[in-house]
Amino acid sequence: MIVMIAAVAENNTLGKNNELIWHLPNDFKRFKSLTSGHHIIMGRKTFESFPKPLPNRTHIIITRQKEYHAEGCIIVDSIEKALEVCPKDQDTFIIGGGEIYTLGLPFTDKIEITRVHHSFEGDARFPAINESEWKIIVSEFNEKDEKHLYDYSYQTFVRK
């Protein structure tokens, strides 16, 4: 199954200047739990925003840069090629950024969203989820607290 996973503001903002705008430790834990042991597909800028490759995951980086190299990662030049190198009998996660989410949406079976209940200014956006194509099957609200400055919900969407 192809799964998109993202933390997204109410106005579909993902981030600004290749960085997250908010800090939600529980979302990081959920991301790690869901993606560990799997192939993760991302754009080059998303990969470069990490201090180092994420442990226990196979990184597939999509880039137009012909000579791009990242130690221990699979480099491809299209979403189709990224999906081809992934095992068909396991979940594969598309983890961003905005352009990769847009390219990957037609191939996606499931979307795991952490919806941050606030609007932010940013330069990366998640594509709109068309309600005629997707249905929400899980929604779990979480209130802000001392470690989380914003209310947020975990939402799971599947194709209708």
Name of the level-1 CATH class: Alpha Beta
Tell me the span between the first and last alpha carbons: 15 Å
Identify the overall geometry.
Answer: globular
Query: How much beta, percentage-wise?
Result: 25-35%
Instruction: Give me the number of helical elements.
Output: 4
Helix coverage percent of residues?
Answer: 10-25%
Tell me the major beta sheet.
8 strands, mixed
Strand order of the largest sheet: 5-4-3-6-1-7-10-9
Query: Element order, helices and strands?
Result: EEHEHEEHEHEEEE
How would you classify the helix and strand content by structural class? Answer: alpha/beta
What structural keywords apply?
dihydrofolate reductase activity, about 160 residues, alpha/beta, Dihydrofolate Reductase, subunit A, Dihydrofolate reductase, eight-stranded mixed β-sheet
Any overview of this molecule?
By secondary structure, this protein is of the alpha/beta class. It is built from 4 helices and 10 strands; from the N terminus they run E-E-H-E-H-E-E-H-E-H-E-E-E-E. The strands form 2 sheets. Strands 5-4-3-6-1-7-10-9 form an 8-stranded mixed beta sheet, with helices on both faces. It has a two-stranded antiparallel ribbon with strand order 2-8. Helix 2 (44-48) links the parallel strand 3 and strand 4 (58-62). The longest helix is centred in the first third of the chain and has 11 residues, at 25-35. It is globular, with a radius of gyration of 15 Å. The protein starts with a strand and ends with a strand.
